[in-house]
Write a structure and sequence with these properties.
Number of domains: 1
Order of helices and strands: HHHH
Radius of gyration: 13 Å
Strand content: under 5%
Number of helices: 4
Number of strands: 0
Helix content: 40-55%
Structural class: mainly alpha
Length: about 100
């Protein structure tokens, strides 16, 4: 299922992607192309966050095909220009995604 540009679905999906990729080395790949480098050692919660991010990155890359391949900086700029400086809160994301 493709998500339309400028929609609430796009805002939530992209906002979640931005938030999930914070402070993760995998966050340096373009949308839809993240991988886990086996040379980078991750433990515990960070390893789990990285795996969840890569899985979500691939999913959202398919849904936001018009943004696929763009890097984090360009996507953060797009988000800010489209919806303003505030990402969805964790509470809003929980309500939206269940």
């Amino acid at each position: 299922m493709t998500i339309s540009p400028g929609s609430e679905d796009e805002r939530m999906a992209l906002g979640r992607w931005i938030k999930m990729g914070r402070e993760l080395i995998v966050g340096t790949f373009p949308l839809g192309e993240s991988t886990l480098d086996p040379n980078v050692k991750r433990e515990g919660a960070i390893a789990q966050r990285a795996e969840e991010y890569v899985k979500y990155d691939h999913e959202v890359g398919e849904k936001l095909s018009h943004l696929r391949g763009k890097f984090r900086y360009a996507l953060e700029t797009y988000y800010r220009d489209t919806w303003g400086p505030y990402l969805p809160s964790d509470e809003d994301l929980k309500k939206y995604y269940g």
